[in-house]
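Consortium newsletter contribution from the modelling node. Members have asked for a concrete example of what our holo predictions look like. Here is one, prepared for the zinc ion complex that several groups have been discussing at recent meetings.
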Amino acid sequence: MDERAFAYSIDAKDTIVSLSDAWLEFARENRASELTRERVIGQPLWSFVSGWETRRLYEEVFVRVRSRKQSIELPFRCDSPDCFRFMRLLLSPGSGDGVECMGILVREQQRPFFSILDRAFPRTSTSLPMCSLCKRIYVFGARWLELEDAIRELDLFGHTRLPRIDYVVCDGCAPPQRLTQGGAAA
Ligand SMILES: [Zn+2]
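And here is the predicted structure:
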């Protein structure tokens, strides 16, 4: 399959030290054209990660990659408002305790536009927990539902303002369940 891949790397202190052109192109396609190479290189990775649970998950993964010198693969979704995107993040040990990160776009599928994922859409002060990895939504404090089911269940169609998204990590995505050893491990 023709897979697109977006590479970046961090140093021992989680500072972004390199980015591929494909990564920048992907950011532009996702209406994040403010993310130029000059603005991203030298920044802490954490300034681009939403939610403390997501950060904690990545921190745990990086500890594993660094301490075991082992590649790890993490499936995740990186949906745009009108597209499902199934991706894999391959993390491999880099030089000097750095980590080489490669986001691989496995499959993309068009769907009707979901305003909830449109970063420019007006928001209310209510928050809606969404898993930053699988993009499921936690509804009524009880169940994790796929985005489209949650929107229907919560009756979020046709609103002029929507709850803001609070990025968390669901039980299904928390380590160790979703961590598999990467295919490129030495
Ligand atoms: Zn999840």
